Amino acid sequence: TAVALSANTFSRTNYDFAGWKDENGNAYTDEQEITLAEDIVLTAQWTPKEYTVTNTATNATFESSVDKVTYGTAAVWTVSANDGYTVDESYITVTIGGSAYTDFTVAENATNTTMLDITIPGDALTGNVVITVTAKLPPADVTVETAINGTVESDVEKASEGDTVTLTVTPEDGYVLDTLTVTDGTTPVNT
User: Which among 18, 46, 13, 15 is positioned nearest to 32, based on CA atoms?
Assistant: First the structure.
């Protein structure tokens, strides 16, 4: 007797329905018409979901490009900083399915120690992935030269690109600040 299989009503988190199999390994599609000579037992087949990946790098390069990930299979991206820049775990952000994800691991690449491997375990890959890497210049020394008729102090000894450095200027009694010159290496900075 020919009958159509009922439409699948089952679901499984992070998996897509992939059809049916009987106890002999025969595959059937959803709602397929089959001829039955006897009762059969069908088992639902599932495939792990795939999700898209968006990589964004500033002052860095993704050396390996993974544009899709599969639930249940760990994914690794290799990234390197551009010349003169550094990258570490604090410069990396990851979102999965629109939510921040912080349990990724970062390790030195096994074959090239100037690169980092970013790894996300397979059970965490439950939505589209966005990885953002922003490499920065290494922190520079903040040097305060000797002041005449007063003191100048910095709140930090080192600063990175984009950091705020606060200078405290204290003139000696009877003096006022005449000039203060701040440079980035040899280039004057607007203060």
Answer: 18
